[in-house]
Amino acid sequence: MQELSLVARARLHPNRVALRSGSVEYTYAQLLERSGLLAGRLLKDAEDLREARVAFLLPAGFDYTATQWAVWRAGGVAVPLSHSATGPELEYTLTDSQTGCVIASRETAATVAGLCQRLKVPLLILDEVEGTPRRVLPTIGPERRAMILYTSGTTSKPKGVVTTHANIQAQVETLVEAWAWRSSDCIPLFLPLHHVHGIINVMSCALWAGATVETFPHFEMGVVLGRVAARAYTVFMAVPTIYVKMIQHLESLSGAERADVIAGFAGMRLMVSGSAALPASVHEQWTGLTGQKLLERYGMTEIGMALSNPYHGERRPGSVGRPLPGVEIRLISEGGETVTGENEPGEIQVKGPAVFGEYWNRPEATAESFDHGWFRTGDMAVVEGGYYRIMGRQSVDIIKSGGYKLSALEIEAALLEHPAIRECAVVGVADATWGEAVAVAAVLREGEKLDVDTLRGWCRDRLSAYKIPKRLAVVNGLPRNAMGKVTKPAVRGLF
Length: 495
Fold this sequence. Notes:
Structural class: alpha/beta
Strand order of the largest sheet: 11-12-13-14-15
Shape: globular
Distance between the termini: 60 Å
Helix content: 25-40%
CATH class of the domain at 206-393: Alpha Beta
CATH topology of the domain at 206-393: Rossmann fold
Radius of gyration: 23 Å
Strand content: 25-35%
CATH architecture of the domain at 206-393: 3-Layer(aba) Sandwich
């Protein structure tokens, strides 16, 4: 029976520790056994799920990974759900993906039970699944759909990015080669597991290499740094916001405690920053504090990672390096011509086996996103001395905050439901901690008043925490151009 490469590789080191949560360790053999059991439960009497969508809301750890592998081994398409998503956001994901089953733990079931009942979607409680693994599982070809991750774009609703098993394998293999992953590695995982950063860059790369992943429900500063001080890790990956907060924390520690943590960081073979631009000042602060030169890279949900500073060689602050193995990059000018020289800006376009093939049930959006096989990222860049530097988004409707890519239009649509707001415009404004903070300029209805604390309170049931505006400007009118459209660069000037 032909197996997925990730599963087949796990059989090469059955007794190695695959995942660790606190003091509990799970081997690759246990991961294979549990995922096989769950795959059989999902299949029931069927031979193959035939790309049926299976969503799951589970904390990072053994059960999450076993469930993801089970969906893949049964022939299904994995739809990871966000723990920070609100009820309407979860409902949108389940209905848009046409999910046929939701998996949750006893702890997370309360979040989705009512929704599943109303949508008539079966809910499987993971803790109640027992038995023995199914002997025969379907053969899954690399061309089969494997996963749908939802990402905000320049429309008001997130789009489902569909990746195949071949896409995922290509995304993993390029990083394993470029970043020299090895079986002796150990990495902490505290990043969200409904994003490519946590799923691919950390978890899947580590498990492909036979390494160990130590999982946390979220980033717990004291616990994670305690493990760093104990020399537990060889590789570390985080978003710029976490590095900013760690710098602040390290500077507050006493001498001996601080020295132990810094020594733990200094002893790692690789530290990576991604999901948002890393300010050069933070890069330099981290190097001055720990001696580590952070490796900055560039990628998207649709393409995995595309550019990276070198593992061996110069890592330039403010740069995202060169194309990864197997990735083709070109820059296209505003006039539609290929940029051939340095210091000329252009849109990053990407081609290669790691690039996705479709947005779920969005053929028009898919077609608009490609230019003769090249994926149009919407990000502008320039080449300087052979290294790419990201200049920003073509669209002002994309906000990158705390490692998340947010749609300003989606947030605006939710804010317009507020009874006091007549018009609004959402923008990202520079923020030292978050990269960009969500800000809103609002025109109120006659006689209404609104302050940012009241607005944030109203938003909590409607928007995920990272989408809630951090700043509010109440204005008489929004700045517009000659065509009557709101000019968001001018709106930024209000803050």
